[in-house]
């Protein structure tokens, strides 16, 4: 991530950009469920953080983090294709992990398409473990894997605490 990039909480004016990024980068072949209206609801929800990374005031990445009583769940996370491998995703993930720990939450869970080998490798490199799979996770059409990270564990590669 370049030093000029900034992470901030999303505002309603970011909702359309986030929704369009979801449609073109994440929900390909599945239909569009993360519409601008749904993103606005997430931005407004007291138990959800929506953060964006901006470069020259343009959103180039985002993450949605939902706080549950016993864990944090990341339902949506993307970085523009041309901006990947610059540390933007890693910075967003570290931001969410730090925020979770500040909120007293030590467990993060998320999902990825089984076919998305790049995302799975990214999460593994960040200390996430695959803890389950579902052959119909994505609207009954595509297989997915569940991943988790125990932020409190001294050895984040242990899956037995998850």
Provide the CATH architecture of the largest domain: 3-Layer(aba) Sandwich
Give the helix/strand class: alpha+beta
Into how many domains do the coordinates divide?
2
Low-pLDDT segments, ≥5 res: 154-162
Helix percentage? 25-40%
CATH topology of the largest domain: Aminopeptidase
Oligomer: single chain
Number of helices: 4
What fraction of residues sit in β-strands? 25-35%
Mean pLDDT: 88
Q: What's the gyration radius in Å?
A: 15 Å
What is this structure, in a nutshell?
Helix content is 28%, strand content 35%. By secondary structure, it is an alpha+beta fold.
Describe this entry's structure for a reader.
The protein is α+β, with helices and mostly antiparallel strands. Helices cover 28% and strands 35% of the residues. It folds into 2 domains: 1-105, Gcn5-related N-acetyltransferase (GNAT) (Aminopeptidase, 3-Layer(aba) Sandwich); 107-162, no CATH class. It has a 7-stranded mixed beta sheet, with helices on both faces. A hairpin with a 3-residue loop joins β6 and β7. The model is unreliable at 154-162 (pLDDT under 50).
Main attributes?
162 residues, alpha+beta, Aminopeptidase, 2 domains, seven-stranded mixed β-sheet, 4 helices, 35% strand, disordered C terminus
